[in-house]
């Protein structure tokens, strides 16, 4: 079976540059509307029981290139439990991960991802007090969260500040109509 690498899913991020048998050269894609990149997350299929070599070739230009030495990628069989890929090395701007997936598919990531699917699992099912105030940069509904207290129920809206130079998070309370007391 031939090796298949894909990032066409929520939070996925990788580009296949070259593939030859059980080896692949990959590149991390820039973050959305940004000049930087560091994060990767992708699915590998067709490799169960065979050693594969995955080389991420553009690490030297990433947001934090000094973080690659001694770094170990992570792998999951179920996207719930993650383990370090022990045979990970970094040299000359290239991160190399060698592994033998025990099943098809497996997921490989920079660290255990926190996707919108996982966020929705935490917040609750769709239809459970979903009020859309606006959409984020990636055209996703923002889900208000209700915090119960003994005094007065409050609603907050957590959102990313849409800035190109930094990734910051802000909690808005008074100025956002979704944040008004219920």
Give an overview of the whole structure.
With 182 residues, the chain is mainly β. The chain has 2 domains: 106 residues, Sandwich (Immunoglobulin-like), CATH 2.60.40; 64 residues, no CATH class. Helix content is 4%, strand content 33%. The protein has 1 helix and 13 strands. The strands form 3 sheets. A 5-stranded antiparallel sheet has the order 1-4-10-6-7, with no helix packed on it. The longest helix is centred in the middle third of the chain and has 8 residues. The chain is globular and about 40 Å long. The termini are far apart.
Précis, in short:
The protein has 182 residues and is mostly beta strands. The protein contains 1 helix and 13 strands. The C terminus is likely disordered.
CATH topology of the largest domain: Immunoglobulin-like
Give the overall average pLDDT: 78
Query: Radius of gyration from the CA trace?
Result: 20 Å
Which sequence of SSEs, written as H and E, runs from N to C?
EEEEEEEEEEHEEE
Q: Order of strands side by side in the largest beta sheet?
A: 1-4-10-6-7
pLDDT < 50 stretches = 147-182
Q: Quick one: how many beta strands?
A: 13
- Percent strand equals 25-35%
State the separation between the terminal residues, measured CA to CA: 56 Å
Tell me the major beta sheet: 5 strands, antiparallel
Q: What percent of residues adopt helix (DSSP H or I)?
A: under 10%
Q: Helical stretch count?
A: 1
CATH hierarchy, class of the largest domain: Mainly Beta
Structural class: mainly beta
Q: Quickly count the domains.
A: 2
Q: Rough shape?
A: globular
